[in-house]
Amino acid sequence: MEPEREKFRAYVEKSGLMSTLTNVLVTLYEEPNKPNDALSYVMESLGAQRCDVKKMELLEEKVKELEKENESLREQLSKFLRAEQQEAPSDSTAT
């Protein structure tokens, strides 16, 4: 099991994960006002953002609304194009 552990350690160090996590933890250690939620602090330091559930629900609603609007507009466009095609042959015979 020791070789597996060493292989993983080498991988973590080579990828830069070890130094990145160390830097984040040092920054947290040096923070004069420690945050209540250390995990959020680490995640934000790494560039991750916590998902706000309410915001996600609102965005999902908006997506559904826009999908319905998109479908409606596609139907209108389709009707318009069909009507235009039906009128086009009569225009060419008039010349």
TrEMBL record:
GO terms for cellular component: nucleus. Transmembrane segments: none annotated. Its main location: nucleus. Residues 49-86 form a coiled coil. It comes from Armadillidium nasatum. GO terms for molecular function: transcription coactivator activity. Belongs to the AMY1 family. It comes from the Eukaryota. This is c-Myc-binding protein. Keywords: Coiled coil, Nucleus. It is found in: Nucleus.
